[in-house]
Write a structure and sequence with these properties.
One of its GO terms (cellular component) is cytoplasm. Keywords: Leucine-rich repeat, Repeat. InterPro entries: Leu-rich_rpt_typical-subtyp, LRR_dom_sf, LRR_domain-containing, LRR_R13L4/SHOC2-like. Residues 191-271 form the Disease resistance R13L4/SHOC-2-like LRR domain. The chain folds into two domains: 15-133, no CATH class; 139-272, Leucine-rich repeat, LRR (right-handed beta-alpha superhelix) (Alpha-Beta Horseshoe). It has a seven-stranded mixed sheet with strand order 1-2-3-4-5-6-7, with no helix packed on it. It contains eight helices and seven strands. By secondary structure, it is α/β, with parallel strands linked by helices. It is 31% helix and 9% strand.
């Protein structure tokens, strides 16, 4: 393990750091000019580096590792490049605490950690250590909704915390914030979706949906609703209860009129309704 290349001697006071709860989160704000491998090290900082004895640096690294061990291998206390490989190796060597915490740390940091940690866990293959049931157990609410939806559509949904993976289900801070069920030949919008209390994006493009349910107004965190390319003839008045809605996409449907309540959408920025039967 040669990941410990240099020490951070001070962390600057900054309001942006108040909500950071891990070394990985803090590393995005760190000054790497104390790294001797950088192309340019300021003269003053080079003098600081030169004054640090190898024994002192070794002691500091050991102190960090001791603290990490005392807190049951909490991966927030070390950089991801060191914490997870070490924890994996300790697990393989039979360390009882490591074996207990290994999967817990992977799941917890993947669903609630910073994006750099989530990307690292995927790219380095750590997610394979979690079974389907273990993986979904880290979703705070909505895991049962995912199971119901998979039974309805007859296929597994792609779940991720990273939007660049183009998942069906996007998770942030352990909650489902985006759901995409497009081109699945759905005849109606599944009722279980109304239980997703933190949903911000709902996309149901290219299905065979004929109506929007009245409960749609209960999704008060929804910011984007996209039901383009369906057979929808009517929008319920409850649509006006979506006070957070910013984008509404109803193009290429069978709409003949819009509900008066659409004027209550005070946050609406974009409305797409082309290719309908509006008069």
């Amino acid at each position: 393990f040669i990941q410990c290349k240099f020490l951070l001697l001070t962390i600057p006071k900054d309001d942006d750091l108040e909500d950071i709860d891990s070394i990985d989160g803090a590393s995005e704000y760190l000054d790497y000019s104390l790294d001797p491998d950088t192309e340019y090290v300021e003269r003053e900082k080079q003098e600081i580096i030169d004054r640090i004895k190898p024994e002192t640096e070794f002691w500091a690294h050991c102190s960090n590792l001791q603290t990490w061990a005392e807190y049951n291998y909490d991966t927030r206390l070390l950089h991801r490049n060191l914490a997870f490989p070490l924890l994996k190796k300790l697990t393989e060597e039979g360390d009882l605490i490591a074996r207990k915490e290994f999967k817990e740390e992977i799941g917890r940091r993947y669903f609630t950690g910073v994006e750099s940690v989530q990307t690292y866990l995927e790219e380095e293959g750590y997610m394979k250590y979690l079974s389907k049931e273990e993986f979904r157990s880290f979703i705070h609410s909505g895991a049962e909704v995912i199971n119901e939806l998979e039974n309805i559509i007859g296929r597994a949904l792609r779940i991720s915390t990273l939007s660049e993976n183009f998942p069906n289900v996007l998770i942030k801070n352990g909650e489902i914030i985006s759901l995409k069920l497009s081109h699945l030949n759905l005849k109606r919008i599944p009722d279980c979706i109304q239980r997703l209390k933190y949903l911000k994006i709902l996309k149901l493009v290219g299905n065979s949906i004929e109506e929007i349910p009245e409960w749609i107004g209960k999704l008060n965190t929804l910011k984007r609703l996209d039901v383009e390319k369906n057979n929808i003839k009517k929008i319920p008045e409850s649509i006006g209860d979506l006070k957070s809605l910013e984008t509404l996409e109803f193009s290429q449907n069978e709409l003949e009129q819009l509900p008066e309540s659409i004027g209550n959408l005070t946050s609406l920025k974009e409305l797409f309704i082309y290719t309908n039967r509006l008069k």
